[in-house]
Amino acid sequence: MMKKMLALLCAVLLLCPCAMAEETPAARYEAATLLMLAGDYAGAAEAFAALTGYMDAPQMAIYCRGLAFAEAGDHDVAVAAFTALGDFKDSAVQAAWHTGMGAWMKAEAALARGTLADLEAAQSLLATAEAAFAALPYLPDAPVRLESCRSLLAQVNVALPALRRAHEYDDVGVMHGEYIAVKRDGQWGVMRLDGELVVPCEWDDVDAIGDGMAIVSSYELDSRGRRDGICYGAVDLQGHVIVPCEMQMAYFIADWLDRFVLAVDEQGEMHLYDAHGRLVAVDTEEITYMNGEVRRVQIAPARYLQWYDQGWVLADDAGNILYVDEAVHGYYVAESGNLWLATREDTWLFGLLSADGEMLLPVAYERNTYELFRVQDYEYAVLTGPDGVTAAYAADGRMCFVSSWEDLIYTGGGRFIVDDGELYGVVDAQGQPVVPCMYDEIDTAVGGFFIAVNELEEDDLVYVLNRDGRVLLTVTGDEADAWSSCNATEEHFAWVTDGMLHIIDQQGEEVW
Questions:
Q1: Residue 451 DSSP label
Q2: For residue 24, what is the DSSP state?
């Protein structure tokens, strides 16, 4: 109530025409002081600032701005203001206090987030806050704040060793959705992105992760360090073995059919397993049936890829064949259900088939084969037509843009790496720049992130960029060499440096 009354009185003094007519610098200074005492720090700062050159009004203006920023919770700016005032009034005490408060508040926020980087930051922040509050024992709140800092710091010091151990990995491998292959003490397992190790690190390799399961392998190393006696199997993502690790070969049928494992035993017999480890088909020549019915995979509403004697065909709900071509060797399924067709004559040729069986692009285009080795969404492809024109095509058959670059590579997520003959950049699905051609190299981390390199005389600079071209990480070549490995999905980038696993999202926030 007293603050409100003081503020009202100050307002009357400042705004009343009679008062304005007679007020002196001393009266205005007193009115500004009353505003400060009433807690209107912003108003006081403005009033003091208007008294340029009068007594200590300029310093008081800065002092009140510091109080205003502190009241708003911006302790860093408050500290800067009080520090700039040196020994003016109690500025040194205010600077120390708000240094502690700012560090303490940041530490609490970091602890709430709970990642390794956050806890390590909190440890440092709490040490700063503890030192600040310990130096102010005469302030009423300082002992309480000091005790809070010490309590939080004790919690951090207990939690950090276990969290660091949870982050200690030698390498990262394949990623799929919320799962990542990780290596510890020379053996591989699978970790969920929240940090839970769902498949123990007890395999010589994790070769692939699919829909609910992972393909694993075991082997010995010969005298030259080469794999010897390799055998394959599969585990579900709870760590249970669903295909014994004694097969000559095991793989997902296709990247769009990663809930079935095709395994070949020592006698060359083929076995088809589902994600529960059920053996659903056995055939010495080719897997053609599951449970006595023609196998089919839904790729769009009422549209399926089915396996007949002649190979994959496109069929509807009733089993009517909408398209078949024995010359087609491969299908790449876009999200829409449309199919990129691949056939091999003298060279690989590609076309596009709609989910209704309509030929959108004839099987007459050459495709950038480098793309075929990348995990991508098949929503776009770079094709060179019979006329020799190279362009980007969408999965609905549209030509998006003609290439004017020496090289054009689709990387997934509607992004293309381009090469102008000297430098590399990234463009979107309309051919518009996302990353200007300014890097000596650009690669994709098999997902929604780019790794760019600028080669310098002394050392290289390595950048990790998100899909929008924003730089998330910058390291020198020496630091980059410390990365044992990195990998990514569309949403997460993972790497190991100095034996510690880190995972960030598209905004650069560390999620593990």
A1: E
A2: -
Return the exposure string of 18-41: e unless at least 16 CB atoms fall within 10 Å of the residue's CB, then b: eeeeebeeeebbebbbbbbebbbb
Q: Hey, CA dihedral for 162, 173, 446, 327, is it positive or negative?
A: negative
Helix (H/G/I), strand (E/B), else coil: 8 = helix
Domains of the chain: 2-167 (1.25.40.10)
CA pair distance 437, 469, nearest whole angstrom: 12
Which one has a higher pLDDT value, 377 or 156?
A: 156
Helices 57-71 & 25-37, crossing angle to 10 degrees? Answer: 20
Give the integer Cα–Cα distance in Å for 406 and 140: 70
Q: Which string of DSSP letters, residue by residue, matches 183-203?
A: EETTEEEEEETTS-EEEEEEE
- Rounded distance between C-alpha atoms, residue 474 and residue 492, angstroms: 17
- Taking CA atoms, 435 is separated from 173, 240, 438, 443, 506, in Å, by 27, 44, 8, 12, 15
Transcribe 393-457 into DSSP letters. EETTS-EEEE--SSEEEEEETTEEEEE-SS-EEEE-TTS-EEEEEEESEEEE-SSS-EEEEE--S
Task: Tell me if 45 sits within 8 A of 65, measured CB to CB.
Answer: yes
The HSE-up count of residue 387 (CA atoms within 13 Å, CB side) is 4
Q: How confident is the model at residue 370 (pLDDT cuts 50, 70, 90)?
A: low
Cα→Cα distances 456→18, 409, 474, Å:
71, 25, 14
Q: How far apart are CA 333 and CA 256, in angstroms?
A: 7
Q: What are the C-alpha distances in Å from 423 to residues 420, 426, 486?
A: 6, 11, 23
Whether residue 190 contacts residue 181, with contact meaning beta carbons closer than 8 Å, is answered with yes
Token representation of residue 474: 């910058």
Higher pLDDT, 312 or 158: 158
pLDDT in tens, 267-317: 888 888 877 887 776 764 444 444 444 466 778 888 888 766 556 788 888
Contact 411, 429 (CB under 8 A): no
Q: Compute the distance between CA of residue 45 and CA of residue 346 in angstroms, rounded to an integer.
A: 80
Does the predicted model carry a pTM greater than 0.85?
no
> How are beta strands 187-192 and 179-184 bridged, if at all?
antiparallel
d(C-alpha 169, C-alpha 182), whole Å: 7
**Is residue 6 over pLDDT 60?**
no
Single-letter code of the amino acid located at 255:
D
CB 113 within 8 A of CB 93: no
Dihedral of the CA atoms 418, 419, 425, 426 (nearest 10)? 0
Amino acid at 72: A
Number of residues that this document lists for the chain? 512
- The pLDDT of residue 286: 46
